[in-house]
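Dear colleague,

Following up on Tuesday's group meeting, I ran the structure prediction for the two-component complex that the binding team flagged. I've pasted the input sequences exactly as they went in, so you can double-check that nothing got truncated or mislabelled along the way. The structure tokens for the whole assembly follow below. Feel free to forward this to whoever is handling the docking comparison.

Inputs:
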Amino acid sequence: MQYWATMVLWIILAALTAAVAAILILPFARATKTASADRAGEVAVYRDQLAELDRDRAQGLINAEDAEYARAEIGRRLLAAAGAGEGKEIAAPKARKYALATTVVTLVPPVVGLCLYLALGNPGLPDQPLEARLANPGNNVALLVAKAERHLAQNPNDGAGWDLLGPIYFRSMRLGDAEMAYRNAIRILGPSPVRLAGLGETLVASNDGIVTEDARSAFEQAVKLDPDNPRSRFYLGLGFEQAGRAAEARAQFETIAKGSPADAPWMQLVNQHIVKNGGTIATGQHTAQAPGNPSQADVAAAANMSQVDRQAMIRGMVDSLAERLKQDPNNLEGWVRLVRSYSVLGDKSGAEEALKSGLKQFPSSGELVALANEMGITVEGVAQ
Amino acid sequence: MIIEIGHYALVLALATALVVSVLPVVGARRGDAAMMALAPTGSLVLFALVAFSFGVLTWAYVVSDFSVANVWENSHSLMPVIYKYSGVWGNHEGSMLLWLLILVFFSTLVAVFGRNLPDTLRANVLAVQAWISTAFLFFILLTSNPFLRLDPAPAEGQDLNPVLQDLGLAVHPPLLYLGYVGFSVCFSFAVAALMEGRIDAAWARWVRPWTLAAWTFLTAGIAMGSYWAYYELGWGGWWFWDPVENASFMPWLAGTALLHSALVMEKREALKIWTVLLAIMTFSLSLLGTFLVRSGVLTSVHSFATDPTRGIFILCILGIFIGGAFVLFAWRAPMLKAGGIFAPISREGALVLNNLILTVATATVLTGTLYPLVLETLTGEKISVGAPFFNMTFGLLMLPLLVAVPFGPVLAWKRGDLLGALQRLYVFAGLALAAGLIFFYIQNGGPVLAIFGLVLGFWGMIGAFADLWYRGNFAKVGLSVGLRRLAGLPRSVFGTAIAHFGLGVTVLGIFAATTFGTETVVEMKQGASVDVGGYSLTYDGLRDAVGPNYTEQRGHFAVSRGGVQVADVWSSKRLYTARRMPTTEAGILTFGLSQLYVSLGDAMESGGMVVRIWWKPFILCIWGGALVMMVGGFVSLSDRRLRVGAPSRKAKPVKATLEAAE
């Protein structure tokens, strides 16, 4: 199908080229006439000027003497033009050969056309008018979104449509549109915890992660409607944390932790924030989670930091990991990470220290031994 | 597939332009009819190909084919259809294609209407046109190709710049380009004449209609652009001495000079060299205008093109064409025969004065425009050359010119009588003075200079008819005979009078609007009133509204005079959703020739709005005058003398068959 379309395209392009070359060659095909050094046009102009002079004279716009001078002047031009026209006929070579010219005319269009078009064109790509694409969008999310947008442009009060678009916009980072979609959905269908949380999240994202007043009120409303909504509560906590109100932040995070199953995917993040706000990890989170993994937000923040700040932040995280391992040493992965972190920071003694402590806890761990070998640390009591 | 055919047509156009650039020149050298005949045929083919290509791009815009990168970047499926059409040239690539389309359109006109031209001249003119076409085709295809594709195609476009979503875009660029590019014909005529080494009075007549047409369109284009900026940008001003505005104004000034010097050349064969130089300069300034807007050196209102590589490419085009033309000029001009002589006080003399002032004015504007750019490039220092500089230099230069305008047409050719002309004009001068004083008295107040300006305006308007009055000899022969005498005059005489009248109208508008206008900036709360220009405006609060691709807040104002409500004004702030770009839409109310201009500022914390209100008395005269000038241009263009030597005169029936097949 596509192949045939391309074939047809090439046939049309070839025909077009041939047509252009044929038209350009026409003048040579009829080339039996002579060129006349024809100055008839000029003669006509000067005749007309003489007539105009007469009119001007009749109207008294020019006096008789000047008119005579002007007449003489124009007359001279007229004679010159008429005289030049005669006897200057160029002899007609009866059958002039246009080999070179016709070659140029036949070759330039296809050669220039083909070379440039092959370099610039996109012959395999069909036309894609939007209407046709919308009629048959397939699995193209962008097209489906566009289709929904058109539908909503016609029926701006279709809340379900906005409900659908909000999260899609958010995921494709069209935050302004996401905000509009969530707001419209809330306006038409009324507030719901999901819509409010989505709106709040959009607002946070469009403010570079800051929980603004707008966002906070959305989350608060969501929590009011559904006290068990961990997402809204998390952002509320985050907002308190950003405002430096650690106790209130911790309360929010602890509420989430209390209401969540121990293996909920967000627990790790929540626990970090509890610790960050001066709490201890709640409800027996002793599954082998490695504390001290930076959250996504932390990583994003690190990307924006200066080198010095980034070092300081990493240092802070490593220190807090060390602190936690001291309190809860039963975490092999944590020890491994700590050792690696120290060595990355270039803190050799710290790395040795951590390795020793880890080996004390897990003397038979092959992983730690391998690490020790890798780093060239000899630790007493360990079989090499 | 259609899009690819359009793309290929453009490539093929380049091939055609290359052929037409070379063979006709060779033909003209050798006196070879076939090779010369290639020029008109090739020009028609070129036009057909470019027009097809342009049509395809337009189609892509109308059906929102976002697989075309240019469409995706500058269109949106929900945009009103008219903007989908005008959006084609609302961006760099498309506007260059429009430029090219108009260029080959003019070539076609020369090919079709230039049958009265000598074969060699026509072949050379069309070849020079083809050189320009070739350069621009290379430029478009290699640096600004509107047919580049996207795969996969996006689902929605990025929308047209909201400032450009206006009827102004549909009208202003095409008119302006008709003017800019129209001067290319004069340029080609000049270069062709220099190549042939022969130039005479007939040449001036052949060039005249093209100059006149280009000048007329450029006048309209500039006026339209000025009015568009006035109502769209919401600053209340109508001319900012913005470099881009200057870029269009300089070819206009030079073109006006060319128009007048060609007159002298046609009548007296004098000023030949000067006219050729002006023809080259005018188009050079047009090219420079294109360069200034396109290269990204200037990022003003027209900032839809910013790419330095394109700038370098255009710089090369400028260098080759302007430099080449001047080299050719320097080499060939001394070989041209000098023409007739004339006394300083004569029609020729007056036109020379016109030329002097206009070229000096052009140079002034050029300096004021380029100096800051050059300075910034060399030293990095940013300076702004604004209205004060131009008013002091350009304004002062214009004053004597405006005084002199009515004298020109009443002076005799070759040897004029200034005293006689003064005698003939004093009645008109008196009338103008009286009108200016009356006007001033009615408007009451303003600096003394204003009287001078007003008188100058009326002087232009009334003086424009002095020539007609004396030609009709109404004083002696009475009305009916006088009218009959007028009817016998060539149309160009009326064209001159109308255009000069229009100039006077514009001058009047400029002085009236600047001296009697008022600007009021107030913070208004709902229900508040303010008095401006004898009208009282009451603010009625903001209302939300939704357009096809924008949302807006519309401020409503009720306008009353003497306690009676006379009108409503809506002034709004829009937000274009696709680009999240705000614009202000000024509310403009027209009373006769004057306007009330309301623009919304920022919302205040207290709940009020900052509102700017201008009272612009007689402001419409500024653009109205330009329209009148344009009418004058068309009237003059319809003069049958410009068609002299057309095949219909049957002077040489042989010629007609020669070209029948084209």
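Confidence is low (pLDDT under 50) at residues 284-292 of chain A.

Cheers,
M.
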